[in-house]
Structures are given as structure tokens and as C-alpha cells.
Amino acid sequence: MRPVGKLIGVGLLILVMDQTERTAWGLEFKGFADVTYSRSTIDPGLSPPNTIDPDERNGTFGLGPFDLFLTQPLENRLEVLSELVVESDRTGDSFIDLERLQMSYLFSAAFQIHAGRFHNILGYWNTAYHHAALFHTTIDRPKFLAFEDNGGILPVHLVGVWLSGTVAASPTDIEYGVMAGNGARIDNDRDRFTFTLDPGNISDPNKNKAVSANLAFKPSIPAGLGLGIFGNFSQVPILDITLPTSLTQQVDQSILGADLFYQNMQNGSSCLELLAEYYRFIDKDSQASTGRFTSSAYYVQSGYHLTERFVPYLRYEQVRIAAGDPYFTALGTTNSNRWVYGLRCSLNPSSAIKAEVRVIDLVGLDRYIEYAAQWAFGF
Amino acid sequence: MTRRALPILTLWIFFDLLFKAGLSAAESPPMGQATTQTIAVVAGTGFPKDRLTLDELKAIYLGEIHLLKDLWIHPMDQRENQPIRKKFLERVVKMTRDRYIEYWNQRLFRYGGFTPLFKNNSREVIETVREQEGTVGYVWLEEIRNEPGIKTLLILDDP
């Protein structure tokens, strides 16, 4: 994490502690963590680089993110929220990431304004579960929704401003949001060889701000159903720091999608859980006349709450990349299919054990199986 | 066979009745506590509304309403050892205890805000709503008779 981010984090902590001195009313401080064992049959020689940690062939225990979440309403309709995550990389070093930091002003439930770093309003998953594995039924996010620093292909974070609100209406409540902020970039400034997506925490590589918008409908019947549409529009430069002129390509990108969520928590102990998201990527290299490239990714996940404790689940994910798409070529993304089968056992509302098997098909490259078990908890 | 079965059956019924009586005693409120099943939803006299509908109350306890006329609204829960809590969750939010906790953890993480504040018993609820503006809580109806400085927003009769 860069020094500026650390300063912001410390500043936020001081601000909140100062408010806490005056009144502890409404202060919420929570922590989340997980420990995961995983083993894979991947052949590193057949798969693209950075697809998976080769040590997972040996069976590996890993610490998930240690998530410190804090929120407090302040005086005069102000509210502050932060999510500070301590993570470890493959070298064993730990580092701090300020994943969310938002200051909000609540005009009303129908109109709120926020400034800071958010999870981009793309789909259901990204704004519902954030960095706590306890909350999602499965062990991991869908692979294509991975965080930017974990090989992700979507700008799941955004620094800027966000207008949001909920309009309670009949027959459906409507949630909306509009975000504008720094656009992401693809660069190789980590190790000079691997290109990764950088959400642009402290600067924007061009004048065009990234803009996201979403609209979600939550009808009263059936209760627990949510349907949403969303979009993200940005210009993503691809930078190679080993070259004298680092800018190699500039991609005009539109991401359009839809999501569905269903879970009726009020319907006794047994209930169906359904989640699906579809993303369409339209990429165009603005500096070359190579035309538009349309790629897509989606997942469908379902679980059934047999009791309050046990939830067997399955998920199918698919990624299809258009040949020559400059954005995905830079990130090294390939076509893939993933099947996930698992069982979640909630020990109590703050702790869950999950076990799953994943069948991964990197189309035309490799097909392998992953086994994983996780204990996720909160406090 | 019948001669042996009869005393065993008698003993079985005796211990069964004894066990149920014990359970019943454990579940019944202690001496001096109200025995009515009617719940009163209460707030201080400065609360911005005089009446709440069941839907509004549910929205408050699910965090969907947290601001009324410039005032943060803080719902209060009673501890799990209080029978009124189970009854309130069944009647108002229609969730089990575990689902309710899961719901709040996820909601807080997603939208921010604050979770309901726990109070040990009805006495603490009454004192808090009287002293802290914007708080709302639930107690047995009998417990608020002749209590000054509070108002009743909704009565939940036993169905």
C-alpha cells in the first residue's frame, strides 16, 4: 500500500476515534478472517502464467484477508465507513490495503452522496460481499470477479464520488447508483513481466473519468428477489514500463451487464438461494483501426438451505474472450469453464465451514481439479 | 407383563409431567414480571412520530429506515434470554434469531449504518428511550403502565 493510502487510513482512524470519544452511539467495529486449505491437480506447464499458485499441487494452507470493518454515523447526517484489510502475499510478507473508505452525507434514503474508495457498482456480488468470505455461500468469488491485485479482470474498486439511493415504491423498491472516478489502467509495474489491472487509487492516467451506473429492482412479491442492470464506461491505457514511451495501447471500454439474486430469508429455515450475473465487454483500441471486440463472462450459482446450517451449492462460470481483444490479451485472460460443487455448514451466524470441488477447463490448454476447505469467521 | 408395565408407565408419566412442569417453570417469567403477551413499541416523547405501522416498525428493525426528520433512529433489542425478544422477532421481522443476526451482519457490511443496540431487560429499554432521543424499543405492555416520559408507538397483540 502506498504511503498516501496509509496516511488516509490513519487519518480516518483518528477521526473516528475522536468521534468515539464524544459518543460511542452507533459505532460498529467488526473483523472477518478465514483459513483455507486447497490442493490442485494443475499442470503448470500447460496453464497460462499466474493462473494458479503452483504450490497448490502440494496442498496449501492459506490465510485469507484479515478484514477490519468500521462504520459510524456522525453528527449532521454524516457517516463514515472503512474496510481495512491485512493480506499476505506468496513471499509471506503482509501488507495493508485500504479496500473501502467512504464519507457519506445522507440527504434521505432516496438520495445519498459518498466520496472515497468504493466497490464498483457492477453486479450483485461485488457490492454485497466485499472482502469477507463468511458472507458468501461458496469459498471464493467467481474467478472473473477476483480483485484487481489477485488477477482480476474487472475494475472492482473505484476512487471518486458516488450518488445512491433507494426509492420505496409499489410494487417494487428501486435502488440506483451513479459513480464517477479514476479510470483503471493495465501495467506491469509490479514485476515488469506480469500485466495487472490497477484501479488508480491516487491518480488517473487520462482526463476521461470512469463512470458506472446501476439500477436494481426489488419487488415485494416474491420477497427476496432482486433484478439489476449496470454499466461501466472508461478508457483503459495499457502501459509497459520497460519501454521508453510506456503507453502501448488505449482501450475504450464499455461493460454492460445484468444480475439476479433470490433468497427469501423470512421463509422459514429451508429456502432456495439463486445468484446469476452476466457481463458483456466491448473493447476498442482507440489508437488503431482494429475494430470492436466483444467478450463476455457470466456465472450462475444456486444453493439450497436444507436447514439453517447446511447449504449444498453449485456454480457454473464461463468466460469467452474475443480473439485479439487488446484488454484481455494484455491481462492474459483465456476462455474458461469452471464448475464448483460444495457444502457449507454454518456453525453459527459468525462462523462457517465450507468444502468444495472445482473442475476447471482452460479451453484448449488444460483441465484440472481443485479441492478446497475453508473456515470463515467474523467477530 | 402387564403388572410390570403398569408401574413403569406410571413412573414414565410421572417423570414426563415433572419434566414438562420444570420446563414450563423455566419458560415462565420470574415473579413480578408481566405475564401478558401484548408487546408495546415505545419511544421517548421527542420521537418524531406518534404512531408506527407494522411495516414501518419492520423497516426500522431491518435498517431500511434509519433517519426521520434529521434524527438518527436507533432500534433496540432485548437480550436473548428475554422471552419477549423471540416473540418480537417472530411477530415483526419474521426471522429466526440466526437469520436475523446474519441479515444484520450482511446489511451493515453492505450499506454501513448501525445494528440494533442490545439492552438487558425492559427496564433498560424504558430508561434509554426516555433519555436518548431517536431510540425505539419494545417491552411488555404491562411494564409501561404509569411510566412517564415515553410514548407508545404501536401495540402488538398476541394473534
Q: Cα-atom Rg of chain B, whole angstroms? A: 20 Å
Strand order of the largest sheet of chain B: 5-4-6-1-7
Helix content of chain A: under 10%
- CATH H-level superfamily title of chain A: Porin
At CATH level 3, the topology of chain A is Porin
Query: What is the name of the CATH architecture of chain A?
Result: Beta Barrel
List keywords for this structure.
heterodimer, A: 379 residues, mainly beta, Porin, 16-stranded antiparallel barrel, 3 helices, 8% helix, globular, B: 159 residues, alpha/beta, D-Maltodextrin-Binding Protein, domain 2, 5-stranded mixed beta sheet, two-stranded antiparallel sheet
Please characterize this protein's 3D structure:
The complex is a heterodimer of chains A (379) and B (159). By secondary structure, chain A is mainly β. Chain A has one domain: Porin (Beta Barrel), CATH 2.40.160.10. Chain A has three helices and 19 strands. The longest helix of chain A is centred in the first third of the chain and has 20 residues, at 3-22. Chain A starts with a helix and ends with a strand. With 159 residues, chain B is of the alpha/beta class. Chain B has a single domain (38-156), classed as D-Maltodextrin-Binding Protein, domain 2 (3-Layer(aba) Sandwich), CATH 3.40.190. Chain B is 44% helix and 19% strand. In chain B, the strands form two sheets. In chain B, strands 5-4-6-1-7 form a five-stranded mixed sheet, sandwiched between helices. Mean pLDDT of chain B is 81; it is low at 15-34.
